[in-house]
Design a protein that fits this description.
- The complex is a heterodimer of chains A (426) and B (249).
- Chain A has 426 residues and is of the alpha/beta class.
- Chain A contains 19 helices and eight strands.
- In chain A, α9 links the parallel β3 and β4.
- The N and C termini of chain A lie far apart (50 Å).
- With 249 residues, chain B is of the alpha/beta class.
- Chain B has two domains: 102 residues, 2-Layer Sandwich (Nucleotidyltransferase, domain 5); 143 residues, 2-Layer Sandwich (Nucleotidyltransferase, domain 5).
- Chain B starts with a strand and ends with a helix.
- The chains are: A alpha/beta (426), B alpha/beta (249).
- Chains A and B meet through α19 of A and α3 and β7 of B.
């Protein structure tokens, strides 16, 4: 690995804290990912990306900045990457997946705040997220109340925080609000980049992002095979890398991986034996390096075959269908695409549960594990009705509530194993 | 064939051996700081052909003994059936866990709930509270049953409840009334877990806390259903593990 110390210092990282973070991350990665058996060759690319996640990729961002391109960081799948690409910007997902410097975060936030928000603050205050430090603009979004209010406190900590409002109902007014917010966001992007969004640049951007989502959708569909050609952990990793890799290179790498997986399916080979218990995980996003639950599940003789999550199908299953040739018409198409996302901040939100059922069926899953982060009101509230609806439809469901620390790993393992024993005895 | 089951709990390790559908051996010992050694002592001269492990220490033993493992939840389902076929749900209150389980019409595991992370409202909670009030566990239950009214306990955290109890007794609250308040608190929490799995018919009550008569009586009142406590409620998980071995063979 090259020496990136100079680059890290130049963007203001705290080198000591950052070293500590990287060493924990590296160890966790080799224990959880590299120790898996029968991994596809195509995962080598993602191993490389992860080994250089704070190195080469950051260098690429710095090079892009040197060429006058802007880096736009965000925390949510409602922030359209298409718009960022249309001003020749670089869109990156920001770090919020590890229990780092929570004690620092708790000096600014109530203790009963979800891990995702605490992590974003912990990383910022500890100065260990190079993506955040390299961002010219950080985009916040009014999803849940926790994030909405947290951005008020976050604002003074970063160079340029831009907060986008989001609708809470799937109504005409809600859609109009979203479109207006996207229009405002374009103006903001044009201002910081000094470049205009044109029909051509927006069409090109939509094409790039659609190709990226298509590749991930292809991967999702291949996982319907038994034996599973790829582990849930590896597939989750691909979905995580989705948020910070170069989109075109990422798309090629996912398609290469899928070519290999198609061969595996044809030959009937997989990562676990045929007949291994198959589950869908549904709920809150799992940002890098939040691998706790998938690891517990896949070390209990089961395989995850799909993620109904922002880091998963919720973020990637819809494509933008461009209708029309004016900027306004393309913006309409983009709004339609994002307005489909069935995040639990919407009320009511019936399409989410319908889609979990659909996924369970098409991926031949035997059950659903519903995952909520502690203190995540929207998903915790929704988990009860979702469980009831799934169980009524004959889909065994296990509801789990947890966060980033490891203290409940033993209890979670007991619940997960008992759930699989229940499924197998049926 | 002699089928054994070992249940390595947080406070107690239990061993059961089943032969021809009858319980032929049952042993217990405190888990201590060295559960593996205690488990080996328990199994030392016991005669059996196959063994299955369960309990929170189930994976610990697997490294030392080639045996299948099952979770406590499945073990309790199988173990409860050994004692009674007319129960629709199971409540197990052990040393650090509370589990509520509902069964389907064929007696299979239907739904389950467990307490989150800490040992609030479990056997360990009762032990600590008894000590704070200066009772043995037997005296504790009897004292609670003798109280005409209960002093309300608000905290379910073992640490906070201890301060609360100390503060109540220093204000002159009667010991047996505080004892009843503690029992009511534990029952209300367990009943909440049970209601979430929608219990049907009779409730099978297992685990060390089922030895406490006051909890049993309060639970019957709270749930409005009969509660059945087997002759030795602590051995249910070990029996379940033994029975699972007999199913596998």
């Amino acid at each position: 690995m090259s020496d990136y110390t100079k680059m890290w210092s130049s963007i203001g990282l705290d080198l000591k804290g950052h070293d500590a973070l990287l060493s924990v991350l590296g160890n966790a990665y080799s224990d959880i990912f590299l120790s898996q058996k029968n991994r596809p060759q195509g995962m080598k690319y993602f191993d490389f990306v992860m080994s250089e996640v704070h190195g080469l990729r950051i260098k690429e961002l710095m090079d892009a900045k040197a060429q006058g391109r802007k880096v736009i960081g965000s925390y949510c799948v409602f922030v359209p990457e298409e718009l960022v690409l249309a001003v020749d910007g670089v869109a990156v997902g920001l770090c919020a997946g590890a229990e780092f410097n929570f004690e620092g975060a708790e000096t600014l936030l109530p203790r009963n705040t979800c891990s995702l928000i605490k992590a974003a603050f912990g990383f910022k205050l500890g100065k260990v997220c190079p993506y955040l430090e390299a961002s010219d603009v950080v985009v916040g979004e009014n999803t849940c109340d926790g994030k909405k209010k947290a951005y008020e406190i976050f604002g003074p900590l970063v160079k340029d925080l831009y907060v986008m409002d989001l609708p809470q109902t799937k109504s005409e007014m809600g859609r109009a609000l979203l479109k207006e917010e996207y229009r405002k966001f374009i103006k903001k992007l044009e201002k910081v980049s000094g470049k205009k969004v044109t029909v051509a640049s927006l069409k090109k951007a939509v094409e790039i992002v659609n190709a990226k989502r298509k590749a991930v959708k292809r991967l999702a569909a291949i996982r319907a095979a038994d034996p599973a050609p790829i582990s849930g952990l590896d597939a989750l990793l691909v979905n995580q890398v989705f948020f910070h890799d170069d989109p075109i290179r990422f798309t090629d790498s996912v398609n290469n991986l899928c070519d290999e997986l198609d061969h595996r399916v044809k030959n009937g080979t997989g990562v676990f034996p045929k007949g291994t218990t198959r589950v869908v995980v549904s709920g809150c996003p799992m940002a890098v390096p939040n691998w706790k639950l998938p690891m517990l599940i896949e070390s209990s003789k089961a395989v995850i075959v799909g993620e109904e999550s922002c880091v998963g199908e919720r973020g990637s299953r819809f494509l933008t269908e461009v209708k029309g040739n004016t900027l306004d018409e393309i913006l309409d198409s983009i709004t339609d695409r994002y307005f489909n996302i069935d995040c639990a901040v919407f009320t009511p939100n019936p399409s989410r549960c319908d889609y979990v059922k659909e996924m369970t069926k098409k991926l031949h899953a035997r059950g659903v594990i519903h995952y909520s982060l502690q203190f995540c009101q929207p998903y915790l509230m929704e988990s009860g009705p979702v469980e009831k609806e799934l169980e009524t439809s004959g889909i065994p469901t296990l509801r789990l509530e947890t966060d980033y620390n490891q203290e409940d790993a033993g209890q979670l393992k007991t619940r997960i194993e008992a759930f699989f024993e229940r499924i197998k005895r049926k | 064939m002699r089928y054994a089951g070992i249940d390595i709990g947080s406070r107690t390790i239990k061993l059961a051996v089943i032969e021809n559908g009858r319980l032929v051996l049952s042993r217990k010992s405190a888990t201590s700081h060295n559960p593996l050694e205690m488990a080996q002592d328990l199994m030392d001269d016991a005669v059996f052909d196959v063994i299955t492990a369960t309990g929170y220490g189930r994976h610990l033993i697997r490294g030392h003994l080639a045996c299948p493992v099952i979770t406590e939840i499945t073990a309790f389902v199988l173990g409860a059936r050994f004692f009674s076929t007319s129960c629709g749900s199971i409540l197990d209150i052990g040393g650090q866990d509370t589990k509520a389980i509902s069964l389907d019409n064929e007696g299979n595991l239907c739904k389950f709930e467990m307490n989150d992370r800490c040992a609030a409202g479990t056997g360990r909670f009762l032990e600590v509270m008894a000590t704070v009030l200066g009772f043995t566990l037997e005296e504790f239950s009897a004292a609670a049953l003798s109280a005409k009214r209960a002093v309300k306990i608000n905290s379910m955290c073992t640490v906070f409840a201890e301060s609360e109890v100390v503060s109540l007794t220093s204000q002159g609250a009667k010991r047996n009334e505080v004892a009843l308040g503690i029992h009511k608190a534990i029952v209300s929490r367990s009943a909440c877990l049970l209601k979430r799995v929608a219990p049907m018919e009779k409730i099978f009550f297992a685990g060390g806390v089922a030895l406490n008569d006051c909890v049993k009586i309060l639970l019957e009142n709270e749930m409005g259903r009969p509660v059945f406590v087997p002759p030795d409620p602590q051995i249910v998980g070990a029996i379940g593990a033994a029975l699972s071995a007999s199913e596998d063979v």
